[in-house]
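Lab notebook: predicted structure, single chain.

Context: the supervisor wants predicted structures on file for every construct in the current expression panel, including those that have not yet been purified. This is the next one on the list. No modifications to the sequence; it matches the entry in the shared construct table.
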Amino acid sequence: MSGFSEKTSFAKAPETVAKTGISVMIKAVPQGSFFIFDIRHLELSIKHLLMPSAVNHDATVLRRIFQMSIPNNRLLSALDSGSFRKLHSKLETVPLEFGKDIYQPGEISTFVYFPESGIISLLSSVETDSTLEVGIVGNEGMVGIGVFLGVEKANNHALVQGEGTAFRMRSADLQAAVENDNQLRRVINLYVHSLITQISQTAACNRYHDIESRLARWLLMTQDRMRSDEFRITQEFLSNMLGVRREAVSKAAAGLQSNRLISYSRGNLSILNRKDLEKTACRCYRVIKKDYDDFLKESAF
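Prediction complete. Output recorded below exactly as produced.
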């Protein structure tokens, strides 16, 4: 087992894995052609320990050695191998395309989504032609919490705001799985608590804090989930997200840009100085992040 950290790039040590015959779950990162080794999902098989060193490293052998992929989604990766294996056959990978609706208010939630990358915004209708973002979901959680709570129809508008991929699962399959798996039920319960904290803190933030600090808070939350310093964003969406006019959004973004915290041009935004952006953000960011970090710690098996 020497040579492996908790998460190690498979590309760095293929011979070690092939010679020992370690049976593990891995994930192929969408942006690259390397693998992530996660020791939490290690399944040692004694009969494989003496696998001949002459084993090829071709795709066929890799598929035999690596039996299923580790999810990048933090909620799913918090499950032990037994719980995840039960779900695995029910999951399908789907693209998250920028600007695509996941569901509209009043629609029956046929599927639930576990983002692997990208972000999905949860929007609430304020008026006929106006919406306000009440929450965002990235690879820390799932979209379709109502299904878990036994609610058939969606109340909010779920919209892809950051491109990526997600695992999709039929709502009926999730409900059946939850009935028979205490760990899955516990992990989702912890996530529901984390999401409630985010939504309630966001509501208070939108009421009491200035636009620039709210924008800084949102950018940090988005970066945490996108795991990227750069992402696409329109002024129209920022206006909906903050619940203010576009002119106010432009002014707030210009303030952050003049202080060299961000760069924003033609819908492309880059975070240049995260440390100072955290200083600009209101306390709400730290409250939400702490609860999010606590969820990850408590859900780890």
